[in-house]
Structures are given as C-alpha cells and as structure tokens.
Amino acid sequence: RKLYAQRQAALLHAVDTSLKDELRCGASDGGLDLAVYFKRERDEQSVVQAGLAAGIELRGLSYYAAGGEDVPACRFAAGLLLGFSSVTEAEIARGAAGLLQVLRKQK
Which of 35, 75, 86, 100 has its CA 20 to 30 A from that of 57? Predict the structure, then answer.
C-alpha cells in the first residue's frame, strides 16, 4: 500500500505541476488509476492515439462510458484514465513530461 500511495502522490504531483495548465484531477481517494479531465476541448481519441505513438499508454474516459451521451444529464467530460500501479515514480515523471508534449502538439 505504501508503494502505491507513493506512486499516486507522484502522479498527483505531476498533474498539479507540469500538467496543471492542461488537465484537472478527478477524485483521488482510492483505486490504482486517476481520472483526469482536459481543461480545454480536445478530441480524446486523438490524444490517446498520439500518446500511443509517443510510447505512452493512455486510456480515454469515453471507453468506460455506458452510453447516453445524447442525454444532457448523462454527458461526461472528456479526459484520460491514468494508471500508476505498475510504473515507478521516475516513469511517472517521464510519462507526464511526454504527455505534456503530446498535449502541446495537439493545440
């Protein structure tokens, strides 16, 4: 648990510092993934594909949606689900730097 807490803290720190202009965090009180939301409108799948091309495994939040996007109350914000359980703190920092480059190129 301590290891996962350290990795989660590293990811939260990366989002709060280097990615703060691009992403905002969702709830972070449990689990081994962190939902983050784009601060500006972006094509989620384009970001996921660009991340994969850069060697960063990304999962879009829309993958987990059950449908109903045409109903206003069921819409969700576009973003990513970032995992941290199987990567080191150094890999998290490198991944955050890579994700920042991907997001900047998408502007």
Answer: 75
What spatial distance separates the first Cα and last Cα of the chain, rounded to whole Å?
A: 37
Main-chain phi, psi angles of 5, to 5 degrees: -65, -40
Q: Which two tokens stand for residue 101?
A: 């480059």
Cα separation of 53 and 76, whole Å? 26
What DSSP designation does 10 have? Answer: H
Whether the predicted model's global pTM rises above the 0.85 cut: yes
- Give residue for tokens 């590293």: 10
The answer to whether 55 and 91 are in contact (CB under 8 A) is: no
Amino acid at 87: V
Quote the CA–CA distance of 61 and 20 in Å, as a whole number.
Answer: 19
Q: How far apart are CA 39 and CA 78, in angstroms?
A: 9
Mean pLDDT, the chain, integer: 90
